[in-house]
Design a protein that fits this description.
The protein has about 450 residues and is mainly α. It contains 21 helices and 6 strands.
Length: about 450
């Protein structure tokens, strides 16, 4: 949207030219109006939205940010919002009601028409995060004995309320799904042909009680715009469309990224979440990580005698800690993403282990050689590491191989272990893995030092 257009709309609001503004707004696409409303202040948002015709207002409302939707529900006339809620697609309406207080939901549900209230209560009755919460009952179902001409006539009569017309669903006399057929098959077939002539009885469906994450994987594998939702007995209950799955995918990815950063997932947008709740979300993991890092101090205290004898070892502690933590963070990020994309199953853990052993050794050797070379170059310029500098360099190099290998293994296996235990793999965040590897990395470093420097510096 052009800046001058926004300025024109703002100017019309300030001048009270609401009739001109109403005419102007009719020419915008819903996506443009969403961007316009979300960019305006609260008062201007309400004015713009009030001027939209019902059908356009409903389309815009479905795509508005949750906070803006809440603002409209609280400040617009109840009859206006009741009309919009009745016009909304059932799946989008359910998604909104999920995030509202229970008493507010009860009030809004009462404002719905009897038919829409029945559908809404049915969808809200499914378990949270289930496919049933996502589905819409607005679809086209046909019978196998119909002709193509009957199907096309039925679409003309009832297709206006369907969420999508890309796929038609064939059911038997009991409502059991027996096939799905693309609309193009009917458009390209003779009018006298029967539906059964177009059927192959191969279709993909979701179960209403199925987890939404499983639905995401099924959509990705089958490349469908919509998928039917059935009951345990195979009865067609509704459909789930791609836009709902994309929304859930975005929420899941956002949650995983927030957890990978070492924080609890935020259940509200960052800028609208109360500060105290934001602190609570972040404080828990920070305390856990802090307590974990205290073990690092304990490890150094345990090897205090060795440090006093060979103070030169202390110079490389930050190097050792960061290298192990970095390799662990790399591994855990790669594995969690690969798991999310379904690139391997838990049964293939041994393949992951084998690859990380090889990768960890290779990366450790690279860093070990770099560390050895750095000490050698500095020693040639300024002999600060003493007569046993070769042993010091060898200690750092060998320790880096072990620490990077351990970091890679810990970072890759921990998400798999959590998944096996039924926990969220994203909980094994990069900071958590880094803290774990910090402590064990120091133990590896000082153990290697004891073995290689005994009788010289130690």
């Amino acid at each position: 949207m052009q800046p001058q257009t926004v300025e024109t709309i703002t100017s019309l609001i300030q001048e009270g030219e609401f009739f001109k503004l109403k005419q102007l707004l009719r020419d915008f696409q819903p996506s443009e109006l969403v961007a316009l409303i979300e960019a305006e202040e609260d008062r201007e948002q309400l004015i713009i939205f009030r001027l939209l015709p019902l059908k356009l207002a409903t389309e815009v409302f479905e795509y508005l940010d949750l906070e803006v939707q809440r603002h409209f529900l609280a400040n617009l006339a109840q009859d206006k919002m009741a009309d919009i809620l009745n016009e909304m697609s059932p799946d989008d309406r359910t998604a909104l009601l999920e995030f509202l207080p229970a008493n507010f939901v009860a009030e809004l549900v009462q404002s719905l028409s009897e038919e829409e209230r029945k559908v809404t209560l049915q969808l809200l009755g499914y378990p949270e995060y289930s496919v049933g919460r996502l589905m819409t009952p607005d679809y086209i179902a046909i019978r196998e004995n119909w002709t193509v001409q009957q199907v096309l006539d039925y679409i003309r009569q009832h297709g206006g309320q369907s969420e999508t017309l890309s796929m038609l669903y064939v059911t038997d006399a009991h409502g059991v799904l027996i096939d799905d057929i693309r609309i193009r098959e009917f458009l390209l077939s003779a009018p006298a042909a029967r539906v059964r002539d177009l059927m192959d009885r191969r279709y993909v469906s979701l179960n209403a009680a199925q987890d939404q994450e499983e639905a995401i994987d099924i959509f990705r594998r089958n490349d469908r715009i919509a998928l039917p939702v059935v009951s345990d007995s195979g009865i067609l209950l509704g459909i789930v469309t791609q836009d709902d799955i994309l929304s859930i995918r975005e929420e899941e990815d956002t949650e995983d990224i927030q957890k990978l950063g070492g924080s609890e997932a935020l259940d509200e947008p960052y800028l609208t979440m109360p500060l105290m709740r934001l602190v609570q979300k972040r404080a828990g993991w920070l305390v856990v990580l802090f307590l974990g890092e205290l073990l690092t101090a304990s490890a150094m205290q345990f090897f205090e005698g060795e440090l006093q004898k060979a103070i030169v070892l202390m110079q490389f502690v930050p190097l050792i800690i960061s290298s192990g933590g970095n390799s662990g963070s790399q591994a855990t990020s790669l594995i969690i993403r690969a798991m999310a994309l379904g690139e391997f199953t838990l049964g293939e853990w041994w393949r992951v282990l084998r690859r990380e052993i090889i990768t960890g050794l290779a990366l450790g050797l690279i860093l070990g050689l770099v560390g050895f070379g750095r000490i050698a170059i500095w020693q040639s310029i300024t002999p600060i590491y003493g007569e046993h500098w070769v042993l010091v360099a060898l200690t750092v190099g060998v320790a880096l191989v072990g620490i990077v290998l351990w970091g890679s293994l810990a970072g890759s296996m921990l998400p798999l272990l959590l998944k096996k235990l039924g926990l969220d793999p994203a909980t094994s965040s990069a900071p958590f893995v880094a803290t774990l590897v910090d402590v064990t990395g120091l133990i590896i470093y000082f153990t290697v030092a004891l073995l290689l420097l005994r009788g010289t510096l130690l």
